[in-house]
Structure formats: structure tokens, C-alpha cells
TrEMBL record:
Name of this protein: Nitroreductase domain-containing protein
Localisation per UniProt entry: Cytoplasm; Nucleus
Residue stretches making up the Nitroreductase domain: 9-170
Keyword annotations of the record: Cytoplasm, Nucleus, Oxidoreductase
Gene Ontology MF term list: oxidoreductase activity
InterPro entries attached to this UniProt entry: Frm2/Hbn1, Nitroreductase, Nitroreductase-like
Gene: NCAS0B08770
One of the GO BP terms on file: cellular response to oxidative stress
Organism name: Naumovozyma castellii
Cofactor or coenzyme needed: FMN
Length: 191
């Protein structure tokens, strides 16, 4: 089992060249169920269950990313969000719920300063696990952080207390990623 997990972790790569479709045999429902299971089971500090996510596809996906493009002044800065708008099938928007974090800060004042960081750690775990899981379904993806721009463009139904943490843009991969180079970074044991 661990060999399969490690293979999946190594296979998860940044893929920018995407097609606005899902791979054959993959459904949006399957993507939703995968992300839902990960949001549910990703560990959180004090079992706070602070993670939230929505999936944008179709017209909503295009509208949000078009607003992001229009909000950026520099032409070079528009390239990545424009490619997301035009090439990705969808985006998973990851959030942490500030109401949950604020309640924890009130309930456990000794830990108050640490709770935002704990929420970020848990969100990161949900993001990378979701990305890895989508790769096992045959999807390509890349993680983006246009957080403020995306939050301003999201539908009004998203609670104001949900703080945008990242966007996992996904679709059918157009090509495989190139070779990855690794630094010498051994994990040492101190006994």
C-alpha cells in the first residue's frame, strides 16, 4: 500500500497544458465525491473541520477567471489566469472557515495565535491530497493562489467567512510533464 501511495505522490505533477474536458470515463460527480471525501477526512487542529471547498465548472468557472484576468493590471500577470479560464475544465477553490478559527481562538486563548497557521496547514494537506487523487483519476492540474482576486469574483452564495486558500485548476492533460530534477535532501535520523 505504501508503495502505491508513494508512486501516486511522485506522479502528481504541475501540468499547465490542459484541455477543457475530463478524461474518458471520469465524471464530475467522481471529482466531487473525491474532493468531498478528502475535505471530510483531512485532519484539522482540535478536530475543527475548518476546510471548505467548491468546484467551479462551465460558465461560473469562466466568469470567475475572466474577472480575475480583468482585475490584474500587468499584461504578463494575466497569462496564467487567462489560460485557466480558456483551457482548464474547472477549479477547486479551497477555503478555511474564519468563523471556526475565531471560535477556537476564543475557546482556547493560549493557542489563539496558532490557529490561523493550523488552518493553513490543514488546508495545504487537503490541497495536495486532492491534487494527488485527481492525478490518479487521469486529470492534470496546477495549484494557483489568486486568492483575493478569486474571492472578489466568486458567487454571492459563498459565505463571507470562508477565506480563499488556493485554487486547484484541472482538466484533461494535453501532455506529460517533463523530467523533474531533485536536490540532494536526505532525511536524517538522530537517535
Amino acid at each position: 500500500m505504501s508503495a502505491t501511495l508513494l508512486k501516486n505522490v511522485a506522479s502528481r505533477r504541475t501540468i499547465y497544458a490542459l484541455k477543457n474536458e475530463l478524461p474518458a470515463g471520469v465524471t464530475l460527480k467522481e471529482v466531487q465525491e473525491t474532493v468531498q471525501a478528502i475535505i471530510k477526512d483531512t485532519p484539522t487542529a482540535f478536530n475543527s473541520q475548518v476546510n471548505r471547498a467548491v468546484i467551479l465548472t462551465g460558465a461560473t468557472h469562466k466568469k470567475v477567471w475572466d474577472q480575475v484576468v480583468k482585475s490584474i493590471d500587468a499584461e504578463d500577470g494575466k497569462k496564467r489566469p487567462a489560460s485557466v479560464r480558456d483551457e482548464a475544465y474547472g477549479s477547486i477553490i479551497f477555503f478555511t472557515d474564519d468563523k471556526v478559527t475565531e471560535k477556537l481562538q476564543g475557546d482556547f486563548p493560549a493557542w489563539a495565535a496558532a490557529f490561523p497557521q493550523f488552518a493553513d496547514h490543514s488546508s495545504g494537506a487537503a490541497q495536495i491530497t486532492s491534487w494527488t487523487a485527481l492525478e490518479t483519476l487521469g486529470l492534470g492540474g496546477h495549484l494557483q493562489h489568486y486568492n483575493g482576486y478569486v474571492k472578489a469574483a466568486l458567487p454571492d452564495k459563498i459565505p463571507a467567512s470562508w477565506n480563499v486558500a488556493a485554487q486547484l485548476c484541472f482538466g484533461a492533460p494535453v501532455e506529460k510533464p517533463g523530467a523533474k530534477e531533485y536536490i540532494d535532501n536526505p532525511v536524517q535520523i538522530f537517535d
